[in-house]
Amino acid sequence: DEIALSERMGGGGDDACGATFRPPVRYTRWDSGGRIDSHRISVAPMLECTDTHFRRVCRLVSRRAHLWTEMVNQDAVVHSWRSKPEMLAYGDEEHPLTVQLGGASPERLALAATVCDAEYRYDEINLNCGCPSARVVNKKDVATCFGAALMRDPEHVGECLRRMREAVDVPVTVKHRLGVRPTEKSADDSMDSYAFVGHFVDVVSQASGVEHFIVHARAAVLSGLSTAGNRTVPPLRHREVHALADDFPRLGFTINGGVETLDEAAEHLESGKLRGVMLGRAAYRNPALLAEVDARFYGDEPREAFRERYAGEARVAGRWDADGFDLANDDRFGGDSGGTRTEDDRLGSRGSFFALDGTDATSVCVTRRDVLERYAAYGDAVCAMNLHGVARFPNALLTPRRLAKAVLGLGHGARGGGAFRRACEREFGEWTRRLRAGEPPETLSFSDLVTGAASEMDADDLDAPLASCAPARAHGEARYGRG
């Protein structure tokens, strides 16, 4: 509750970290409704990538894939969750959603987890034990190192997770690597072997009670290799993740790293031993990769069939108004279904519950054009709430640029995709010129920017089914058993 949270955050009253403060929106807990485990397909946490804007793009392509936030530092949450609520903000349609925390203090991680659970209603909280960035693994004070560096002390990881689990009412998970090495050329493999990662999983699970491990199927190099290099240089060892699932059948494992297509994801899930597959850069570079996820992995109706049925039902329902059929309040046809939040609440959480064609934005999108139109309407709402920042920093245009960055992947593989990206940048230059000339920010339209830039893409590609924009099968290991 609010008072207990305030006391744990170090005080009471209006000056405490939350006694009277609430986020600007009352977040609601997601109800899975007994559906298939949402973790079958996840989109990985990626710094400066998986912000709320990109998650909206993902949700317009897939309603079921499990989404993750960027990693959020424990101290940022503890100290700034009241003054910067946008740090953890999301829209209702982003569920199911995991927040990932970075840190090494059991006490602060527990407090940060409490905020994420009690105030923001995240569906799951994850501890990052896999980030290889020098900023987090090579701190002068070894005790404050986190990310992949935490794997060197599984007992401490277990204590952190235990404290987090005790503080919240939602599942707590851990994301880690298969091991760590001091440098790329180091001959010391004492912490980079199957025996080591097996010991890590055993100790952490016993000490904390955590039952779901998300495993990046590479080792992490703690020094001398960039973050990008750590995603490509250490070899993939998918079989070791499958071996963990064999050796710890009571635990759940999600595999991450090097999965480029849905065919590969299906192969990993074929044995039924893994709980899920996590897609990373492949989904960020080309969100259309998620287009068949709902039908293929969650048993939903294919999106093209849904759109055809939806249009037919809407035409029939349109003739029922005289009999008292309330189309506006039926969520099958884009209505509010009575008990959802008001429009003010929706815009307050930057929700994209609207579309240019009048349908519910949580329904499926079939083409690139569908996604771009709905996302552009959302972008207009976000920009309208950030006019002060747009006017104050005309050269930076931080919010509009973040909005555009999240949707650039839709140009992947399309004829004119590169021109689409360049047109966005060219338009931002024009925005800066207009603002510096004294034009009010209210005259700028994110929808116009996106629509104009999208016209650079081939019309046939814009209107092609999203599923046809997904990549062909990539080369890789044919089977992922123990052999």
UniProtKB/TrEMBL annotation:
Alphabetized InterPro entries for the sequence: Aldolase_TIM, DUS-like_FMN-bd, DusA
Residue span(s) of domain DUS-like FMN-binding: 43-295
PANTHER family: FMN-LINKED OXIDOREDUCTASES SUPERFAMILY PROTEIN
Species: Micromonas pusilla (Picoplanktonic green alga)
An annotated Gene Ontology molecular function: tRNA binding
Protein name: DUS-like FMN-binding domain-containing protein
Record keywords, A-Z: NADP, RNA-binding, tRNA-binding
Gene3D superfamilies cross-referenced by the UniProt entry: Aldolase class I
